[in-house]
């Protein structure tokens, strides 16, 4: 009688660790180091892997495909596996870079520190936090950029009132928009605001890579990355390819949001990305007329959760009408009223993060 498979969640890093054991017989390097893993999708412990192999030897790699399938199937949590070989022909310029940039993390010589702002659950105000944090870093005298890596729901153009498509130079490098002293890049600047992006995983990965390696960042002290919700292709691509200084997790007080926040924290820990701290957004609602405060959600004890996970609790941000209005009008709240108590909260958060960047 066959043994039943485990129902424990399948983690991306477990799969990547197995793939590192698969060696290309021609170069002697593993397929992860060679950057051949072009797609990895987990759906209820069913796994789809795309391996991009050299087109000139495409017919010789069926044994490697079978080896990948065999090794991954041995994982106790894997139910079904589909391994697909692809053979996209690289350009001459890509071939020149094959031994450097495309094999490991991207080198961004003009960027000192990269911080990801992340949440597993949508609707917690992650983008609002990311934009206001970027502006607060800039108010501290730092040179700051921000990337909108949420390819399915880019909000940076509206939140920062960005207009027009980016300029692309003769070397096919993107000039970031400059707004409020921030250097900005977003897929939302290349498409209409009401146009949906119906993309599969590989297209998402490629786009996110271009938002880093193809943008001409100019001498940045801090680059803030607004990640999409979840723990899928977009997050994995960025974590594997971008040298992160750390990640900030955003949640709301409700229990369901904290459950998702735990997943995000676990993802970064498993991928060995430093966790700079947890922010609780929409902690309370403050009436714009009388100033009375009341909870929006049942308290999920975010601070206690941060303590359990042994990461810093950076602060609580109340929900006020002016904060959400600022997002819609295109001028971040901390720029409108730097002396407001909420602006002071953002300043305190930045003060806590800065020592990690030195």
Helicity, as a percent range? 25-40%
- Average pLDDT confidence is 80
Number of domains: 2
Rg, rounded, reads 22 Å
Ranges where pLDDT stays below 50 over 5 or more residues in a row are 89-103
Strand content: 15-25%
Tally the helices: what do you get? Answer: 12
What series of H and E elements makes up the topology?
HEEHEHEHEHEEEEHEHEHEEHEHHH
CATH class of the largest domain: Alpha Beta
Main structural class:
alpha/beta
Overview of this protein structure:
This protein is of the alpha/beta class and 358 residues long. The protein folds into two domains: 85 residues, GMP Synthetase, Chain A, domain 3 (2-Layer Sandwich), CATH 3.30.300; 247 residues, 3-Layer(aba) Sandwich (Rossmann fold), CATH 3.40.50. It is built from twelve helices and 14 strands. Strands 4, 5, 8, 9, 10, 11, 12, 13 and 14 form a nine-stranded mixed beta sheet that branches. A hairpin with a 5-residue loop joins strand 6 and strand 7.
Q: What brief labels describe this structure?
A:
alpha/beta; 358 residues; 12 helices; globular; GMP Synthetase, Chain A, domain 3; 22% strand; 2 domains; 14 strands; Rossmann fold
Helix-strand blueprint:
Elements: H1 12-19, E1 37-43, E2 46-52, H2 62-73, E3 80-86, H3 92-96, E4 111-118, H4 126-139, E5 144-148, H5 156-159, E6 167-168, E7 174-175, E8 177-179, E9 182-186, H6 201-213, E10 220-226, H7 233-241, E11 246-251, H8 255-270, E12 275-286, E13 293-294, H9 302-308, E14 313-319, H10 321-329, H11 333-336, H12 341-353
Parallel strand pairs: 2-3, 4-10, 4-11, 5-9, 5-10, 11-12, 12-14
Antiparallel strand pairs: 1-2, 6-7, 8-9, 12-13
């Amino acid at each position: 009688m066959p043994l039943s498979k485990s129902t424990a969640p399948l983690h991306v890093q477990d799969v990547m660790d197995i793939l590192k054991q698969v060696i290309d017989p021609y170069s002697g390097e593993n397929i992860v180091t060679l950057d051949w893993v072009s797609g990895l999708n987990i759906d209820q412990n069913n796994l789809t892997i795309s391996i991009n192999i050299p087109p000139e030897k495409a017919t010789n790699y069926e044994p490697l495909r079978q080896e990948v399938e065999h090794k991954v199937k041995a994982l106790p949590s894997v139910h079904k596996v589909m391994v697909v070989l692809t053979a996209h022909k690289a350009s001459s310029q890509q071939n020149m870079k094959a031994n450097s940039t495309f094999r490991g993390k991207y080198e961004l010589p003009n960027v000192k520190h990269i911080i990801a702002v992340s949440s597993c659950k949508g609707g917690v105000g992650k983008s609002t936090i990311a934009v206001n944090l970027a502006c607060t870093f800039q108010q501290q005298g730092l040179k700051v950029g921000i990337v909108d890596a949420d390819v399915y729901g880019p909000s940076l153009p509206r939140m920062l009132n960005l207009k027009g498509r980016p300029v692309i130079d003769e070397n096919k490098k993107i000039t970031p928009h400059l707004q409020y002293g921030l250097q900005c890049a977003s897929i939302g600047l290349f498409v209409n605001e009401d146009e949906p992006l119906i993309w599969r995983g590989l297209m998402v990965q490629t786009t996110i890579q271009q938002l880093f390696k193809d943008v001409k960042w100019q001498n940045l002290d801090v680059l803030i990355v607004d990640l999409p919700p979840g723990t899928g292709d977009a997050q994995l691509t960025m974590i594997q390819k971008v040298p992160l200084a750390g990640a900030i997790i955003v949640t709301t007080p409700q229990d369901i949001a904290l459950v998702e926040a735990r997943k995000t924290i676990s993802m970064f820990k498993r991928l060995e990305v430093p966790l700079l701290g947890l922010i609780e957004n929409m902690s309370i609602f403050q009436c714009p007329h009388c100033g009375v405060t009341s909870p929006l959600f049942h308290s999920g004890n975010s601070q206690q959760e941060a303590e359990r996970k042994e990461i810093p609790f950076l602060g609580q941000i109340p929900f006020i009408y002016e904060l959400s209005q600022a997002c819609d009008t295109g001028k971040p709240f901390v720029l409108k009223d730097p002396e407001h108590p909420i602006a002071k909260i953002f300043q305190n958060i930045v003060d806590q993060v800065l020592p990690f960047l030195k």
